Each structure stands twice: as structure tokens, then as C-alpha cells.
Task: structure prediction
Amino acid sequence: MGIVEILGLATSVSLLSGWRMYLTVFATGLAMYFGYLDLPENLKVLEALANPWVIGIAGTGAVAEFFADKVAWLDSIWDGLNTLIRPLGGAMLALAVVDAGDPVWQVIVFLLGGGAALASHATKATTRAAVNTSPEPFSNVVLSTTEDVVTGGLLALAFTNPIIAAAIAVVLLGLVIWGLFAAKRALKRFLSAEPAESPPL
Result:
């Protein structure tokens, strides 16, 4: 695996950690534990994810996130609780993937990985907060399920074709940011709309 593929993998994993940190760690560790994922020699540091304790904790977090993420406002509380965990986890995963020997390069990768995870987490959390203002209860379920499917698909793609996965992840992040601004404008119009006048008695 060349440097371009490794950077693509690091980018994908960091961005996915901002959306689904526990699912990313759980799925990767499970695939490694059962031998579905054979990492190159320079990525053997990720074998720690295959530890049964790591898989169990990540799996518990993934199940909790799966249900919490589909309930209006509970998803925002969950996002708030994970504001530190997701960016830090994304930074550490990116650092483990690159596994650079140069301390300067390690700091750069750590900051970039954390920044990517923080960006995807922030757009997810803000978008969810905007969606929670909708009176119908189905938007959260649809959006959360879409995130589950996209995360699982991109994670599988990241380990088979990291360059394509990184490109798709960046495009998706751009679409999420665009949707965030669109939701912000819609919310601003909704809040600034004058209330209808009461009919005369």
C-alpha cells in the first residue's frame, strides 16, 4: 500500500469517525478478528482493534448510538456527549493508519485526522439540530439510517480501494456542508416568518 492509498484510508476513516466512531471501530475490529481484513505490514498497529475488549466496548457504543441517533433531540444530546470522543478517535485512527516514524509527520496527521473528524461531526450534529425542528418524526430515522448504510459501505470500500473511498467521503462531506447551509437558511426563514393574524371575533 503506497502513501497515496494510506492517506486515502486515513482520510476516509477520519471522516467516518465523525459520523459513526463506534461503528467504524467495531466493524474494523470484527473484520480483523475473523480474518476478513488482512492489513499490510505497515498497518499492523491497527490489530489492537481486533482485541475482544475493544470490539465489545465499540459494539456496545455502536448499538447505543444506533438507537439514540434515531430519536429527535436525543440524537443531539448524544452528539454533544461525543463532541470530544469522535474527533480524538478520528485523529488517533488516522495516526495509526499512517504510522509515520517522523514526529513532525505524526503531529500533522494527528491534526488533519482530528480536523476531518471534527468537521464531519460538526456538520452531522448541526444538521441533526436543524432536522429536529421538523414536526414530523421520520426525518431522524431516515437520515440516521442513511448514515448507517453510507458509513458501512464507505468503510468496506476504504479497505479495498482507499483512494476512491476518500474521494467519495470528501464529496459526501461537501454535500453535507451544503445541506447544512441550506437547512440554516430554511430555519432562518422559518423563524423570521411573521405569525398569521388572528381572525376577527
Observations:
- The chain has one domain: 3-183.
- The two ends are 76 Å apart (CA to CA).
- Residues 3-183 form one domain.
